[in-house]
Amino acid sequence: MASEILKNIGRFVFLVLLQGLILNEVNLWQGMAIPYLYILFLLMLPLETPRWLELLIGLVLGLTIDMFTNTLGIHASACVLIAYIRPLYLKGIAPRDGYEYGQRPGIQDFGLTWFIKYAAVLILIHHLWLFFVEVYSFKGFFNTFLRVVLSTIFTLLLTIISQYFIVTKRSSRQI
What we know:
The protein is an all-alpha fold. It is built from 7 helices and no strands. It has one domain: Orthogonal Bundle (Arp2/3 complex 21 kDa subunit ARPC3). The longest helix is centred in the last third of the chain and has 24 residues, at 112-135. InterPro entries: Cell_shape_determining_MreD (IPR007227).
């Protein structure tokens, strides 16, 4: 239990620093695609995480990124939205037998197809909220929507690639 908490704290610090120091400086296609890999932390929270804790973690994660980007709560609101929707969406895409204790929503436990369905929807919701709250207008809707789509694709690709770098010990269960 304590080692799992330490791993999550380390993952939190790593993703925040990676986002704040490196990925925020990456602007592909003249700022049309910006990777927001930090939301991987929310996506990878254990399935047993209490809802109140997910919301609190989403708030802290978003506020931390807001401090790096000087965005006054935009990332915090997007992360809280994802933390709120995540348990509902997980119920909707649950396997027939449900989830086993200790599973993490990742490629290692559920496979690539399931993970893409899971991550793509939540990343898209996050980016829709983030970019449209940022411009605070539907003026330039198609330009903003293009930014959402390109950033979602870029973030999803980085998320999938990062899944292959996460090494977990397999239990004796068959998946």
